[in-house]
Amino acid sequence: MKIKTLLLLLFFSSGLVAQNFYMGLDLSYTNELENCDVVYYVNNVAKDPFIIFKEQGANLARFRLWHSPDWTDYSTLADVKISIARTKAQGMTVLLDFHYSDTWADPAYQLRPAAWNNIEDITLLGDSLYNYTFEILEKLNVEDLLPDMVQIGNETNGNILLKPGEALYPINWSRNTNLFGRALEAVEHFNALNAASVKTIIHIAAPEIALWWFQEAKTHGLTQFDIIGISYYPGWSSMGVRQAANAVGELITTHGKEVMIVETAYPWTLEWADNASNNLGSDNLLKTHGLEASPQAQFDFLSELTWLVREQGASAVIYWEPVWVSSDCSTPWGQGSHWENATLFDFNYNLHEGAAYLAYDYMQMPEALNPVDVVFKLDMTGADTTNGVFVTGDFTGENWQFERMQAIGDNIFEYSTTIPGRSQGAYVFQNKADWDEQWRETVPEECALMWNTHREFVVGKENAVFGFVWSSCTEIDETGLTDYPALAFKIAPNPAGSYILVSGKNPIYQIDIINVYGTVFKTFSFTGNMEVQLDMADLQPGIYLLKITAVDNISFIQKIVKK
User: Fold this and answer.
1) Is 166 a catalytic residue?
2) Residue ranges making up the domain that contains 434
3) Pick the catalytic residue: 32, 258, 263, 403?
4) Which of 154, 169, 189, 360 has its CA 20 to 30 A from that of 344?
5) Is the pTM of this model over 0.85?
6) 482, 509, 533 - which closes a domain
7) Which three-class secondary structure state does DSSP give residue 183?
């Protein structure tokens, strides 16, 4: 194992690691929280959060800027000046995020400042954008507060600078290109007149969207920016951590530009410290990381993501709002914080272990990313094996090679391989190396977790076995077969309201309610009852799975719908 790890490190050390890598943090909430009497600690010793993060290894701070908010005194130009001064005092790089709005701009909202709502002519709107961008840079420069980088908008996935009621989609590329271009010109002209070198970033949410968005932008002539910025939140992306890193590499190769993860986060707990709902819940946890929320899981995610994107050539990973702890202050949606479970501080405002990713030695690959041994097994009893038995999937190469499985007795076939840790993807069994659908197993709906047709493999940091009966959800493991018959128990009513009744011919010892992401919402324990009632009142509407554990630890899976 030591030799394999050493070889991997030697291989990856020749990768595309950016020469200047930024360990960044969005600290936009800091001034507001401190004014709400929050004090931040390291080992119970009070410290300035800018000093805390500088000492931990951060070298960049990001700040959002709203145009003329009438609902807050923060993220204004005056507030941003204070934040930039604090950052520069620590010798850290500054990224200024122009939202070009009076409030939050994100994939769902791109409202222009109210001051520009009466502008109908696109040329005049572009002039306003140019003048505002240029003037902000001038005002900051006069006070020696010039940022090193600026974002031209925030998560600008759709149409930008909209009036209320205007549509985000479809994207009007001619309009968007014009407006982006005017803001970019302002920075370019400012740089030329002031011998400055402020870099520009265009920021898109989700790496899978960034792949096509920047290709479309290139097609429409929008290329005069310096850096591609991406948000990557696992719960708001279809990509796992390795897929996201690969997308970063693809963007660098395709466009020849720097790429930064300008927003990311991961929960360190699913608990809360106030009554404000948390934005990051169980659906933001990764299967590859055991669906765990803890400081260690947060550290693992951040250190592994950072290592992977560095190897792909990225130039930054920026954590969004590590200081947004709970306080007596309020947001427009409630008192407290919607992010206290995803900060880098615990509920007592002490820096927790998750923050250690900032100081991690990225010359060393995180242990969990090492390849692990994986075995695929298949019971072909009663199925045709005349043409061989095969497995194919995301782990068999870009073109999905057919891998022949070996007979090991009792109609069981096996294929062994290694898969990089923290991987997930699709796979399927075949009884002929042929893409005609007749040779592919029909995977039942309850275990066709990929595209409703394929099985899913999830590899963490331990060796794994994926074994099933052909065209079935019946698992093969070391203890034999675990059956999941479709109608093992009667469930009524289904769709369910506030409760359901479960009954059958087998005694019931436990029932788990699981969502489509594999998260266990509730567990009910029984003493071998033949009929039980489950309280469903606090479940959100949607599709769930009931895992019913009966005698001899045999489990059954049945689907339910909550109205």
Assistant:
1) no
2) 370-482
3) 263
4) 154
5) no
6) 482
7) helix
